[in-house]
Specification:
single chain; 456 residues; alpha+beta; Immunoglobulin-like; 4 domains
Length: 456
């Protein structure tokens, strides 16, 4: 029976992690099962879309419009054959194979426009190796060579400004010219051969200067490759990378080193001269600084003496104020006693007691001398703080004498209670006087009154 076995193999959808196994349908079990033997046979072959088995147990398959067969030998092994069917590329029915094997010498293959007859007994040794050659080699400014370049020139030079080169190549054949593919590489610009392509033109742009070798090869529809053809050419360097340019750069560099060295030596001599002058200037400056520091030290000593004297004066002020406050307190007590004595009726006393009573009264009145204490205190304070009072009066002419006294007491860091006793007013009266003084001095609530007075 010449009817082929139409056993169907189902290919698993390929993925990146596993191989794509084959599944065979069993008529007996009415189910699919993995066929590991067939999967192993197709290892290394691109993903296929159709597989059938003919009457001789050969496995016919197709992928990417390519037809092939795994031929089964008498020993049961398989070998792959695709080259004899290369001419059928483009004429196969998509995702379908129609193979009718009558005998090894008569195998019919279904195509989109008819049938192809294949005799597997005929050897393909008669198929000749294709020939490839360069048709032209041109740059961006000129066509360097053209025609069938079987013996191209070896000394081909391209100016750097024309470093955009173009190659055209061809492989003459009388059978399926559209199935001729080419591969090429430009050494040393490319390390590996480019993938096979039907394009017969290649351009390279912006090549650097150097020696290049363009290699091409062709492959016919039977998968037979031609010999390699090549063209050697040179891209000349730009003027600024030419040998003469580098020589000029070297001379300029040497000249620059000489000029720089000369200038450095001259600068060293000038620096030594200026260093001598600078050392002299620093010496004089240091001497002047020492004199200035000595003068400042003398001033500091005088200031410390003055500060020490001022501290003594302030201490005396404090002592005087304290003594005056004691006098004030004593006088208040004595005045209270005098008032009580006045309340006693002297007529009720006998003569002796009355005499002693009047003697005691005169003695207490004599002891009370508050006005003199205040005058001595005010006189001393005004003498000590004469300059302060003078500056304050000049700056604020409308300030009253009582406000001047308050300013002096505040400057002496006296408490509100002490000021109240000295000025013979209540603490509330002191606060009111402070408020009026702040207003006359033009100070707001945030400004410190004592700090302001110390800065006058």
């Amino acid at each position: 029976d010449t009817t082929p076995c139409l056993c169907v193999f189902v290919v698993q959808i390929p993925n990146a992690l596993t191989e794509s196994p084959f599944y065979r349908y069993s008529n007996e079990q009415e189910d699919f099962f993995e066929d590991k033997k067939i999967t192993a046979l197709f290892k290394g072959i691109p993903p296929i879309n159709t597989v059938i088995e003919d009457s001789d147990n050969n496995l016919w398959y197709s992928y990417d419009e390519t037809l092939g067969v795994l031929v089964k030998t008498a020993s049961g092994k398989y070998y792959r054959k695709e080259a004899p069917f290369s001419n059928l590329t483009g004429n196969l029915v998509d995702h379908y194979i129609s193979i009718n094997t009558i005998d090894p010498g008569n195998i019919f293959i279904g195509l989109t426009d008819g049938l192809a007859h294949y005799d597997s007994k005929i050897s393909n040794k008669f198929i000749t190796k294709p020939h490839v050659f360069f048709e032209s080699f041109s740059s961006s400014s000129d066509t360097i060579i053209t025609g069938n370049l079987e013996n191209p020139l070896t000394d081909l030079r391209v100016p750097y400004k024309s470093n955009h080169v173009k190659f055209t190549f061809s492989s003459p054949t009388f059978e399926n010219q559209e199935n001729i593919t080419y591969s090429y590489k430009l050494e040393p610009f490319e390390e590996n051969w480019r993938n096979w392509s039907t394009l017969s033109v290649k351009e390279y742009t912006n090549l650097r200067e150097g020696n290049y070798k363009m290699k091409i090869k062709a492959k016919n529809s039977y998968g037979i490759e031609s010999n390699i053809e090549e063209i050697n050419f040179t891209i000349s360097p730009p003027w600024y990378r030419h040998f003469l340019a580098y020589l000029t750069y070297s001379l300029l560099f040497i000249g620059a080193i000489y000029i720089t060295s000369t200038r450095v030596k001259l600068k060293i001599r000038k620096n030594k001269y200026y260093e001598t002058i600078e050392q002299r200037r620093l010496y004089l400056e240091k001497e002047s600084k020492i004199r200035h520091e000595q003068h400042e030290l003398e001033k500091e000593i005088e200031r410390l003496k003055s500060d020490k004297l001022q501290i003594k004066i302030l201490a005396k002020d404090k002592e005087l104020v304290s003594n005056s406050l004691q006098v004030v307190k004593k006088n208040k007590v004595l005045n209270g006693i005098i008032q009580k004595i006045k309340d006693i009726d002297a007529n009720t006393l006998d003569d002796t007691t009355k005499f002693e009573f009047n003697k005691l009264h005169k003695s207490i009145v004599k002891e009370v001398n508050t006005d003199k204490s205040w005058k001595d205190l005010e006189k001393h304070i005004k003498n000590v703080h004469f300059e302060f009072l003078k500056r304050l009066k000049e700056k604020y002419p409308t300030i009253s004498p009582r406000e001047l006294d308050l300013s002096t007491y505040l400057l002496m860091n006296m408490s509100t209670k002490e000021i109240a006793e000295i000025m013979n007013i209540s603490t509330g009266g002191v606060e009111l006087a402070r408020y009026r003084l702040r207003k006359k001095l033009g100070l707001n609530k945030k400004e410190n009154l004592i700090g302001f007075l110390m800065s006058v």
